[in-house]
Amino acid sequence: MPKEQGEKLVASNKRARHDYAIEKTYEAGLVLTGTEVKSLRQGRANLTDGYAYIDNGQAFLDAVHIPEYSQGHWTNHATKRTRKLLLHKEEIIKLSHAVSAGGYTLVPLRLYFSDGRAKVEIAVAKGKREFEKRQTLREREDKREAERAMRSRNRLGE
User: Which residues does the annotated region (Disordered) include (predicted)?
Assistant: First the structure.
């Protein structure tokens, strides 16, 4: 039984939700070294440049920056190394089919601890064009304005 209970968010990739249209998400475990885990427990990681790929029936996470552990010494890890993802074989097959179909990529959305184990949420995503990004921002702004108007209208009616 792990000491920790619940979820503890380490890092999230807000840029991915802006740049990509998220189709489906998967939770994957990570193969990490000891100093990487200690660095993550300090809440230090960066997912912005990260991506995942499938190679020979295995999933890998690349270009995710986990800084060196401050109290580590010669056993410290490389900050941007390729890390293996732990997924079921069926999930890996689904992901490889989605990516090979074209236009889709695997993007890490968030890195967290779930009951003491490091997990990453990866998404099958399609890149947005510039006008789609602007449209999404406009829709979000319109929704905020409508909520503000409703709030002020409700206050006046009381």
Answer: 135-158
Structural domain containing residue 43 = 7-127
pLDDT tens digits for 126-137?
Answer: 998 888 888 888
Dist. CA 86–CA 97, nearest whole Å? 18
Please state the rounded mean pLDDT for residues 111-132: 93
Domains: count for the chain: 2
pTM: 0.82
120 and 147 in a common domain: no
DSSP string, 99-140: HHTSSEEEEEEEEEEETTEEEEEEEEEEEPPHHHHHHHHHHH
